[in-house]
Specification:
- By secondary structure, the protein is mainly beta.
- Helix content is about 5%, strand content about 50%.
- The chain has one helix spanning about 100-105; strands spanning about 5, 10-15, 20-25, 35-40, 45-50, 55-60, 65-70, 75-80, 90-95, 110-115, 115-120.
- The strands form two sheets. Strands 2, 4, 5, 6, 9, 10 and 11 form a seven-stranded mixed sheet that branches. A four-stranded antiparallel sheet has the order 1-3-8-7, with no helix packed on it.
- A hairpin with a 6-residue loop joins strand 4 and strand 5.
- It is globular, with a radius of gyration of 14 Å.
Length: about 120
């Protein structure tokens, strides 16, 4: 069974940086999307960034130029480098991955989710 485990969250001051990691186990799909989502208290979940199996990346407008999504060892480890953090970036960050069905639907939804890691940015 696919498992995603996030790490790297924490508390930083505005302007600081954090690097989130997501380790995937038993994930062997050749065609896939992986993504970082976040959810702040009383707000809807937001897709922050995603990367697909050919390396194409997309970002939410709110994080463009500050966040970078990347992979190591194919899709075994997913990263989110976050720079120039702002208080509005405070949220629980989740790693997600598609299965073949959700990939075929254009990666509009995700089948596998991690439990999340808290990021807190103070002003």
């Amino acid at each position: 069974q696919v498992q995603l485990v996030e790490s790297g969250g924490g508390s930083v001051q505005a302007g600081g940086s954090l690097r989130l990691s997501c380790t995937a186990s038993d994930y062997y799909d050749r065609d896939y999307c992986m993504a970082w989502f976040r959810q702040a208290p009383e707000k809807e979940r937001e897709r922050v960034a995603n990367i697909d199996s050919d390396g194409t990346t997309t970002y939410a407008e709110s994080v463009k130029g500050r966040f970078t999504i990347s992979q190591a060892s194919a899709k075994i480890t997913l990263y989110l480098e976050m720079n120039n953090l702002k208080p509005e970036d405070t949220a629980v960050y989740y790693c997600a991955a598609t299965d073949l069905v959700s990939w075929a639907r254009g990666c509009s939804d995700y089948a596998y989710w991690g439990r999340g890691t808290q990021v807190t940015v103070s002003s």
